Amino acid sequence: MNREHGTITTRKMVFTAMLACLSFVLCTFVYFPAMAPFQHFIDVIAEIILGPWYAFAAALICGVMRMMSGRTIQAVMGAIFGPIVGGLLYRRTKNIWLAWLGEVIGTGFCGAMASYPLMKLFYGLDVINPFYYIPYYTPSAVVGGGMGLAVILILKRSGMLRVILETLEEERSRRTIR
Questions:
Q1: What is the pLDDT of residues 52-84, one digit of tens each?
Q2: Contacts 24+ apart (CB under 8 A), 111-114
Q3: For 107, which DSSP code?
Q4: In the chain, which residues have pLDDT < 70?
Q5: Which of 3, 52, 76, 165 has a C-alpha 20 to 30 A away from that of 118?
């Protein structure tokens, strides 16, 4: 591994950890029953700035910390699918609105559907149908993701988004020049 690659990886890992901690703090102090809009706020920002896999890592780290502080497995399941779907959509299209939509679909449908069997298995909750969690997850993802989208739009308009992305991707552009 060359030195430049290590530097860029370290930057992304540090930024991932910072976003995970920020998400944890925001979710701890601003909590709604069965909703964590600030998780999705951070998810959308991470999807666009870091990509799907680092965004997934930030969501997973935050979800595990939330579980360790007394939340159910929903803290993880409601967080991990949105960054993957939204991040992959953004990576493919570079459309920030599709990143937000991917967050909503990934969390509102995939995360909600994955929570049903796990809540039944680990907590013995037997709700009526597997679609039970969708009305809880989707509004949280819409609102939180919308806040993240607003921050990204502000950063884009000010030119700071380009600066952040260039700082985190400068090694990749150097590799293609060589």
A1: 999 999 999 998 998 888 877 787 888 899 999
A2: 111/77, 111/78, 111/79, 111/80, 111/81, 111/82, 111/137, 112/78, 112/136, 112/137, 112/138, 114/77, 114/81
A3: I
A4: 1-6, 34, 170-178
A5: 52
